[in-house]
Amino acid sequence: MEKLFRRAVHPGEVLRGELEELGLSQAAFARHIDVPPNRISQIVAGKRAISGDTALRLGHWFGMEPEFWMNLQTQFDLAEADEESGQAVRQLPTAADRSRTEG
Q1: How far, CA to CA in Å, does 46 sit from each of 15, 57, 79, 103?
Q2: What angle do the packed helices 26-33 and 52-62 form, to 10 degrees?
Q3: What CATH number has the domain bearing residue 53?
Q4: Model confidence over 75-99: pLDDT tens digits?
Q5: 29-68 burial, b if ≥16 CB within 10 A, otherwise e?
Q6: C-alpha separations of 83 from 1, 7, 57, 86 in Å
């Protein structure tokens, strides 16, 4: 079976691009949205996920829905999970398999 998810972009890559475009350092941005600087640096480095709180702050700062940031994180997490265990999961029986054998 084929992989269900293509390589997803970590939200930190998107955030890095936005900060570069604005000419903002990570530390300055952290001050603007009132979070510790290490939160932003860890997100940009791909070592930390976007939390609900961070999504709210990013959405407010950039004038967009916080769901944008949460959806990026979810897509990334699903792609990672698919890479790690997707093939094994796709080998498991499904509800349709059960109804065919019991019907």
Answers
A1: 10, 18, 14, 48
A2: 100
A3: 1.10.260.40
A4: 999 999 999 999 999 999 999 988 7
A5: bbeebebeeebbeebbeeebbbeeebbebbbeeeeeebee
A6: 13, 9, 30, 6
Does 77 map to a domain?
Answer: yes
Which residues in the chain show pLDDT less than 50? 1
For the chain, counts of helices (H) and of strands (E): 7, 0
- Looking up tokens 């796709």, which residue turns up? 90
